[in-house]
Amino acid sequence: MDTAILKYLTNILPNMKRPVLLIFVISIMTGIAACSDRPEDDFLPEEDTIPAHLRIGYPVQTRIIAHRGYWNTKGSAENSLTALDKAAEEGFYGSEFDVRLTADSIPIIFHDDRIQNFVIETTPYARLRDIRLQNGERIPTLQQYLDRGKGRNIQLILEVKAHRQPETDLKAVATVVSMVRDMDMEEQVDYISFSFPICREILRLLPGAAVSLCGNVPPSKLKETGITGIDYSYEVLKKYPEWIQEAKDAGMTVNVWGVNDLRMMYDFILHDVDFITTDKPATLKRMLAPY
Fold it and tell me: What one-character DSSP code corresponds to residue 138?
């Protein structure tokens, strides 16, 4: 590669002296390396300083859910088995993760609806299984994720993603619920989804399951559906803070997600939300630590 670049630059820069050209090439190669994917060893963990006025220092009911697992730390990656391991090791209440169904009905753990140029829903698992996450791991299947988490002191917050075809949503729910049942993990798995039909189908197949809707529906309108909690973004609950108490009055749990700002963490803790889902779970843990 170095020789090819040197030859190319020699052709386009015929008047440049070779020693100068060589230095120029070296600087280009260094720049290329710097622009490549960040090496694992360069990953910096959370380093937020918690100001004294934002330290809690007393027991609260708010518990920590690591968004897509504890990925914001060395050696980890979003929705990886390592992210689950590290969330459990840190003692977080839960590890949230995203489930999608492949064309041959294999549930895999991935957030977006496509991986590279492959639409997950229309691609067989064999075409996806060797694709690597940022930390070098393969994309895990739901079976692998459940195997890794079973029996550990961590709640698995399973988000069933909406697919392009409604029938795929129903197949995904049936596959997920069956897998959780077969592994006797009903008590360790909570469910969330942005899709009301998906939430309703989970409850139909698994009555009594903890199922929360991600959205912006007033909690009072959800209670009669059987949905047990709200899982709303911080934007929604900042706009409608009264919904926190409304949900509590209806006997529903309150989870707020996307909370990475220190002041916002503090404010939602003071509102007694049940869960905060964050990309900075270690920061939140330090905020909640006793003095």
Answer: B
CB 70 within 8 A of CB 92: yes
Angle between the N-to-C axes of helices 142-149 and 166-182, in degrees from 0 to 180, rounded to the nearest 10 = 30
Beta strand 118-119 with 107-109 is unpaired
Residues 273, 274, 278, 280: what is their CA dihedral angle, to the nearest 10 degrees? 90
With a pLDDT cut of 90, the percent of the chain lying above it is 81
pTM: 0.84
pLDDT per position as a tens digit, 131-178: 999 999 999 999 999 999 999 999 999 999 999 999 999 999 999 999
Q: Which segments of the chain are extended strands (E)?
A: 63-66, 94-101, 107-109, 114-115, 118-119, 155-160, 189-193, 211-213, 229-233, 253-257, 275-278
Confidence of residue 47 (pLDDT cuts 50, 70, 90): low
Q: What is the 3-state secondary structure (H, E, C) of 61-82?
A: CCEEEECCCCCCCCCCCCCCHH
